TrEMBL record:
Its main location: nucleus. Its EC number is 2.7.7.6. Residues 270-286, 1363-1374, 1394-1415, 1425-1444 have a biased composition (Acidic residues). The lineage of its organism: Eukaryota, Metazoa, Ecdysozoa, Arthropoda, Crustacea. Keywords: DNA-directed RNA polymerase, Magnesium, Metal-binding, Nucleotidyltransferase, Nucleus, Transcription, Transferase, Zinc. This is DNA-directed RNA polymerase subunit. It comes from Scylla paramamosain (Mud crab). Belongs to the RNA polymerase beta' chain family.
Amino acid sequence: MGSYSQVEHTRIEDIGFRIYTEDEIRHISLVEVTNDESFNELGHIIPSGLYDLRMGPVPGRTKDICQTCGKTNLRCQGHCGHIELPLPVYNPFFYNVLNKTLRGICCNCHRIQVRAHHVLLLKYQMQLLDAGYGYEALELENILSRSISSPMEATEVAVGIDDKELSQKDAGIVADLMNLKKTLSKYCDKVIRGGTCSPETSTSIIKNLETEVVKSFIKKCYYSDKKRCIFCHQSIVRLTLQNSRFIRSGVNKKEKDKDKDKDKDKDGQTEEVEAEKEEREEEGENGEEKSNTILDAQSYITSEQARDILRQCWDKNQEVLAALYPVLATSELPYPTDIFFLNTLMVVPPKFRPCNYREGVAIEHQHTVILRNIVRLSKVLRFLLSLVNGSVRELPEVLQYMVAEVAGSTHVEKIQTVWYQLQNYVDALYDAELSRLVKSTTKGMRQVQNGPLVYPGAVMVEDEEGHRKHLNAMDPKQREAMAKKLLTPPESHVHCVNAHKIVFRHLQNGDFVLMNRQPTLHRPSIQAHRARVMPNDRVFRMPYANCKAYNADFDGDELNMHFPQNELARSEAQYLVTTHAQYLTPKDGSPLAGLIQDCVVASVMLTMRGKFFTRQDYQQLVYSGLPDHTARIKTLPPTILKPQQLWSGKQVMSTLLLNIIPEHKARPSFSFRTSVKVDLWQTSEPRPWRAGGSAEHRRETMTDSDFVMRDGELLSGVIDKSAIGSTSHGLVHVCYELYGGVVASKLLTAINRLCVYYLKWCGHTISVKEFVTPKSVSEWRRNALSNLVERAAFGVSLKLDVMEADLREYYERCHMSGNEKDMASIDAAYTAVLGSTTSSVTGQNEKQLLRRGLDNHMRMMVDTGAKGSKVNMNQMASLFGSVAIDGKRMPLSITGKSLPSFKAYEVNPRAGGYIPDRFMTGINPKSYYFLCIVGRDSLQHTAVKTADSGYLQRCLIKHLEGIQVKYDMTVRNSDGLVLQFSYGEDGLDVTKVPFLKSLATMDVLVQNGHRLMEPRALALAKSTGEHELVEKYRKKMSKRNKKGVNQSGVRWSGFLKFCSKIDEQKHIPGYTVGRSNANLHLQNLWHQLRPEERDKYKKKTAKILDPINSVFSSASNLGVVSEALDAMVAKYYEQVHLPHTPATHRLTKREVATAVHMKALNSIVNPGEAVGALCAQALGEPLTQMTLNTFHFAGRDELNVTLGVPRMKEVLRTASKNISTPIMEVPFLDHVTRSRAEALRMKLSEVSLGKVLESMTITTGLHQKESGRLKHRTVLRLTFLPHKEYRFVYAVTPSQILAFVEKEFIPKIVMKDIHNSFKHKMAMCDSYKKRPSRKTAPEEREGRDAAEDAQETEKNKITFGVSDDENEEEEDEERAAGDGDVATSSWSRKQEEQDYSEPEEEEDREEGGLSDDEGTESKKKDAVAEDEGFGEEEMEEAGEEENMEMPSSNLHLSTKRRKENVSPEEARQRQELLMEKDSWIVDYNFDREGELWCEVTLDLPVSRGVCDLHSIVRSAATRSLVHFVRGIRRVFVVEKDSRLMLRTEGVNILKMFEFEHLLDVNHLYTNNIHQVAQMYGIEAAQRSVIRELRAVQSAYDIKVDFRHLTLLADYFTCEGEYKACSRQALASSLSPIQKMSFETCTQFLKSAVLRGERDRMESPSASIAFGQPVKLGTNAMQLLQTVNVGGS
């Protein structure tokens, strides 16, 4: 790496994208390649070949000199050449653009099928959007609708504004269009002259609007279903891209006749006119000279013909094409559409397509091979064209064999074949190109003399001209000469790039190096360390305290070391990236560095009460912790004076603090609770005091559980993990907060050295004695566990309400049925039975250990946080207990065994994974296998989730990489879009505010910060900013609060005052657009008041003052903090400081506030901070702690909630509208009783037919019809439960059930499944035959109506065929274009290699047609009609019935039954109606009195075999719904915080509004963020994103700072809709380079070229791609230097 001075003083402002024209390629080129050979037989380069020396020498040939610049291979940059093509070919880069454009053009009149007023609208909308006006561009649609005098006429008649021959009617329309054009032009000029926006201030919102405008315009013209041109009224011929050709579909005669008949009826043409028109059409069809564009049916058009079509279209639709593809408007070509075709190919220099050499033979580059074939085919094609034209009569002998191999009987056919091969090679060439796109002086003299192999040495030297010379390890004379030249100045004529010579030396002691371990998940993964070189060692040695930041251990981890190469990098490493600046993690501000294991044990043993040392030992211990302390070491007086002077271990620690903390700084005073509990200090019951008096109220008083430090002296407590580990608010953390990272690092290092030295003195071991208990306790433990294993089955049977003898059978039945709920209940029963005894055994065994308290070394390690946990200790001393996988017992195989050694469905708890053994006595093989299974499962989860979590973090970083804090303290992305006006809503840095989060930590800050506050810093803070105005505003706010004015954030206005005083408050049920009808009624009454009456109410309400941080800048004004922090200060002073602080140390409220305000002022986030990248790292790094597939089971009968990585994918990446487990929670009103709540639950719950079906009987026999054909006569009898058995359980009646069976279940579900069953059997038996056509005889079809099939097919087409995803459509078109050609295999390989595209399948589905509202509704309707038994009409009727049955005041369900019996006439009508729906239904009968059964007779074909009718009906009954509420599956009534709550599986917010008299709909919540955004607005969705992320993280005890969550939620909702981190969401970015560096590089590059986009070089991706410094952090600003002119 060279120095910064080599870079010129220039900077890239922006980057544009366009296509080189043919003339530009010829101008750039230095040679035309005409020879397809590169080397002759002697290996010499052939002129005019692909390795012509005019394009530069070939890499590897050192003797070749460039004939253009005269430089060698190392110096020559390469020069381009070109190939002239005899015929134009399609530009493969624009295949989908050509396909989309030609599809919307009429091949007869060459016009785009779009209305004139749509063209004007598009033109002026794009003009305003280019200028940065988004709202005004959308307003043009309203202006258009108001300006058109006759909208129907404008939509029915389409004319061109420039047409000359117009009828009187069309002339009037043109006049209207001209007036419309003037109106729109005048409006646009007025807006642009306002100057409120500019193209430089354009944001991603404008980009997104531009995309939507273009997309809607394309839908209007390119995807219309009209078969005739709206201008010439001729039939439109559709062109389809297939195998690099545009195939046209011919129009058959029937369609032409049909169109003619329609025209005749519509226009009233005479027969003569019709005949003339028909003759003209026949002439146009037979004569190729007149059309010159359309060939015979099912033929293709050539590239020349396609170019001519686009040229003529440019003449007539220039404005449309220029608006769609702005790059055409900037082109200087006479026909800009020619950029879609290629006549000249640029040849890249040989430097970038080097040859490989094998045994002296040159092997050409793959790129060169493709170019050689293009040259060869161009040569053949050129001579074939000459033969056809007659200019050449005979081919050269060299080409004759090549032409003979070309397929085709005539020269014209051979030309077509050669052109097609040429097109394929051009496609392959572009495919390869795009794939490559994606992918001191004396000291220095001694180092140079030593060379690269002797330490300390050097590798090379760079002189003033920038030339680098490597030092030869075997040539000491060369190194000596180079060393002497270091002192010689450069000659006067030398152009100096460097100010002096640069020596690339070895690493030395004291140099800063950057250490990194992959994967780099967060900012502390790269830290700067001071190096100490150990010449004889070959490993990295690092203090263990720093390993947590790298997530590194000592099992073979590999770290990378980087040596900064210039002063700028070294300065940033020393002051920004060094370890003492990375003590806190940006995720939540918690410490990263800390001591563990041996150091924690040693520090506890050293600081325990009763540990004393002599003078010699005391001084030796202090010196071992401070070996590099240069000043005189200060010591403390002894604790014990007589009979011998002794120093305590606590004094040793206090001495370290005394010498490390700077002398002019006050010593810290604070306290906290240690990890060592009271039980370890008090191992026996306390005795009465012998001297009298009462015992202390707190057990911790006489122990070392409380850490107390006063003025830097440790008075009480031990130093355990909570003090020196990576724990918040410990000893090291407090020192970091008060004195900075340097002091904290020194303290951590000193304690580490001290503990290691002391551990060598005392030692620490663990033996078997730590786990020994008395014999009686051991015997009791064995007996208790033995009885537990034997009696567990009895206890489980009681829990499940099953006989003990039937438990195994019940277990088998639940397993075979596959019911997870029943299996979960069995697991819960075993857990409940085994849990209590297991806990008592472990607890009693722990209490009866022979070694107790801190005398037990294992217990000491566990309770001090050094290593291990109580689970590990219990596994060694007591028992293992139950092992589980994903919260369940050991899974069963298909044989019902967890391991082969157990019996099938064994009820012994050992078979389910219960291990009553311990490590002390050993475990049996079965238990060993169970532990192996659990361990392997955790390894599998870790391996599988790495890909998902890694890809998710990559998506987050790519989206948020450009977000930073600007100098006005706003948070913006690289496009300039404001995401937050104050970072995290308070503007404070995450790593600077850990002590401002709670009252206890604020006490540490106030007690020490006030003493450490420097008067000079306080005076400077008060003199900066608008201090007087701030104080004045604060006094004004305090006066308002004293008067009792509500300043708590509750809204209060004149309208609300009016609502509280009005007597006419009515309860009007229902909601309209999110507002209740009662509120709308109050709103109307308010608007009916006179203005003076409204002013009376407004005067009665005092104006609420804005928060102080919204009026003044918190970055430059002391005391400008958020309202939450001010409230915390007041609460702290009243509840903590006044009651617990002695009067001598008590501060005033103003002094407390000043201390906190100074801390807040110093905690303001720095401008240029890359808060977006920090947010992505904070959310992505904890993903590895989450399991892959996690579901939270909230009880036996309640809902499952997706957690872990799947839920994070739904929220962060896919932003799916249809989430896996949607839930909704609504609390009941206080007056609602449990019974009414259960009634509502029953009303909303779905009821399947299987729940009310009592029995099913099927009888089958042979029956001969009148025609003589045999049929299977099958009688299906369905018997339903009596109404009294479910009237209080399900909200259905027998009449509703029977009506559902007749209308939906039998004809639409059961019969459909029967037909599908027979079709499946025929396909299995006759797989070699073709499927029967739809046009078969009715007897062969046997039952299905053709119209019904056609209707169903059409419905499926509508449902699943529409897609609004333009990107997906373009990918499909490219895939179709690549079939059968050379580029196909390369495209397929590229798709397989791009693993990142696989996770985007969910996003593509969401972006498709089924993701919008209409598509979703149609899909739901189809699913309900097919699987649940309701069509659209039936669903509407059912909804009306529900509304009619629903009482307004209460919810007592209607239990009315039919009073009279069904009449015979009605029964006959119902029978006939059912039999008409399918020919296989021959009879139907039902219970006319009680409607408790029905009977259907079917005639099934004999030739097709026998279907399993029982399974079909049973399966259909299970999934068919008699009663349901759309979107809701299951409903539960739960009690939460002593309040009833309705919890549903599924979401239907509007339905909840209908029960506002029972439900508190103002507190409704759902985890479907899209539903929240749709119903309550985007701000509610923003808070919902934060809530969902916190819910997932809290389940794993993961803490992420609120500021990160607010930033991410603001980014997701900044454009007015909820978007996630997908490539579709990134499409609105203004940086093409950022989009291309994410995914689908080709698609984004193509869009940038067509749209004429320019990259403003603001995004980090763009800067990195072009070698520019990233405009973040220290490079966010620009320095203005003072230049002295005139030599002063």
